[in-house]
Amino acid sequence: MTRARRIVCAALAALLFGCPGPFASPSLVDYPRVLAVVAEAPTVEPGAQVTLTPIVGGSVNTGVFSWSLCVRPELASTGLPLSSFGAFEAERGCDTEGALVIAPPSSERSPTFSVPAGLLTDEAALRVAFGANLSGETLRSLAARAGVTAVASVTWTVDGMTTHAFKRVLIRLGERNTNPAAPSVRINGRTVRRSPARADELCEPDDGMGPIGVAMGARVLLEPSTDESWVEQFTILDASGNLVEQSEGSFRSWFSTAGQFDLGRSRAPDLNPSWVAPRVPGDVTLWLILRDGHGGTSACRWTIAVR
Fold first, then answer.
1. How many CB atoms lie within 10 A of CB 41?
2. 235: which strand partners?
3. Domain residues of the chain, as ranges?
């Protein structure tokens, strides 16, 4: 696999929980990568705005971003645009053949896009989203009941290397959902968490005693909070055309700049993952990306001092 292909594949793995190998480790951040994209809010109504923030690893304050917002043909079943969460998809966001761009592009690090007010009745967009052979009446009915999935596509170029990533945003009447609460993690009897006042994903020990220290080569158990009071209910349109109520879940992805996880992905009731520290001293950055299976994402980033 070429390095460029490895970069693309790793970014998709971070966003979609799956990518065919080989690469050194999907959880190892040893080059600039987009680990996730947070949408605020993940579900919006036509005419609303959505702000997108990338969670990146490496060269945090450098590089060039290029964003677009589109409707594209989905590999998921008609009317179930978010049901394939966790599946690998070979296409790359708005670069997918047949995609229809629905907003001006942006080079901001964290852009805000305006969703067209008439998107759910725009026949050209609906034919991309649901299929060219359906009648206009069927297309509008599907859009009104299931909504339309917009895709935010981003490239991040750092030192000549480009990462591609994308994020789904559901456009739907009468439904909004929020991102999960910021995750917290207990490590060696101490807890790292994010302050509600922070605009980024930085987490710090809540005891105020500085970074958590571990010995070189130590195996450390990572215990994420099991509080899921943030879980929301939502509806999907099933294959029979019925609206079905579902509940969000918690899907966790783990990343670090060094060391090794025994589980790069986890969810209840899976065992909590362990992380083995590298056998050289220094500060290591770790991330926990939390997704709710409904488009919502939150993140926590902290430092462990290996001694």
1. 18
2. 245
3. 3-171, 185-306
Tell me the average confidence (pLDDT) per consecutive run of 10 residues in the chain, 307 residues long: 32 33 66 91 94 87 91 58 37 82 96 97 92 88 90 91 89 89 94 89 93 96 92 81 84 94 83 93 96 92 96
Q: Compute the distance between CA of residue 264 and CA of residue 224 in angstroms, rounded to an integer.
A: 13
Name the fold adopted by 3-171.
Answer: Immunoglobulin-like (2.60.40)
What residue ranges in 240-281 does DSSP mark as E strands? 243-247, 251-256, 260-261, 265-266, 274-276
* Cβ partners under 8 Å of residue 183, min gap 6: 224, 225, 252, 288, 290, 298, 299, 300
Query: Which 8-state DSSP code applies to residue 181?
Result: P
pLDDT of residue 112: 98
Judge whether 153 and 94 are in contact, CB under 8 Å: yes
pLDDT on residue 92: 66
> Amino acid identity of 114?
S
The residue assigned the tokens 């600039």 is: 32
pLDDT at residue 91, as a whole number: 55
CATH topology of domain 185-306: Immunoglobulin-like (2.60.40)
